[in-house]
Design brief:
CATH class of the largest domain: Alpha Beta
Order of helices and strands: EHEEHEHEHEHEHEHEEHEHEHEHHH
Number of helices: 13
Structural class: alpha/beta
Radius of gyration: 21 Å
Oligomer: single chain
Largest sheet: 7 strands, parallel
Strand content: 15-25%
Number of strands: 13
Strand order of the largest sheet: 3-2-1-4-5-6-7
Number of domains: 2
Amino acid sequence: MVSIAVVGLRGMGNIVGGIETHCRNLYPSLASKRPDWTIRVYERADYHQPSAAYAQNLLVKSLWAPRMKAAEAFFHTLFSLLHARYSFRPNIVHIHSIGPGIWTPLVRLLGLKVIVTIHARDYDRPKWNWIIASCLKIGEYLSCRFAHRVVCVSQASFDDITARYPRFADRIYTIIHGVEAQPFLDDGERSDILAELGIEPGRYILAVGRIDKTKRFQDLVDARQTLGHDALPLVIVGNTVGDTARASGIGDLQKNGVILAGARYGQALGHLYRNAALFMHPSQMEGFALVVLEGLSAGVPMALSDLPQHREFGLPDQCYFPVGDIAKIARIMTQPDYEEFRPHLDEAWLSRFNLGGMIDNYAALFEELDAMS
């Protein structure tokens, strides 16, 4: 029987972050699809939230970790691995992110099989000093060197990792993120989110994500400030994660014409996606950008920074702008009609980013690893 310990995420509740959203999408569905498997997800105690009822074979274990810059993920992963080895006794460990991946050799020493999912080049984030960035680079190397399987979440990330670690290319895979087919269709239920924020359907520009430097929401704000009072308001959905002092520029986001909506989930987030005139994502680095996939699934017009990961969505050239090009962002914001930015997605596109496909690919990888002697 396959038993999996999952480490590296903050928690399974409503927490802003690509890894956390990925885990909420993956493990409940995987547990339901494989009722004979046992999955235990280790989350950090400070991020624990009452969660929806999961299948009986999906367990969430909350463990304490010190709330210190960078050290939180480091120590929580260590505690989780030791607890898993001597209490849960899984046959597979699934590590998320290259920071926790620094413990991959320990998993091998404990006699367990290990998969590492690399979500992004976290050492490129401006918030880290050179010491932490160097540790993250070491974690990336150790993940590729010692993991039985390494998963990249986009083709661009796969190309990058295999180019830098060609010796380990035979154990590196691509499993693209997925979402439910059309997850934000109008369910007929009422939401007061638009009235709460003082906005009208089709009369606002939307941005969604964790608020930190790499997302470059400040570029959207600066572009909006160059426009007149009649321009559409900019609504930013998201918040900081962890130490709010590390999120630069959050105070600067509070300008005229800009609405900070905080973190939103479920029905409220769906209403915001569906009713936006335009979705913009100005990020300077991504592993995959799940919020873009959510926006595309909602059918909203899109304008994205020109990153290889964003290009994988296959949108027309007019849907992309250079990172940091505030003048171009402002010109897009003032378009009289955003219809040319609306994606027209065919069945092949939808099947590529389907949640069921992602779950099947992970299930096959776990089964392959379980069968290894």
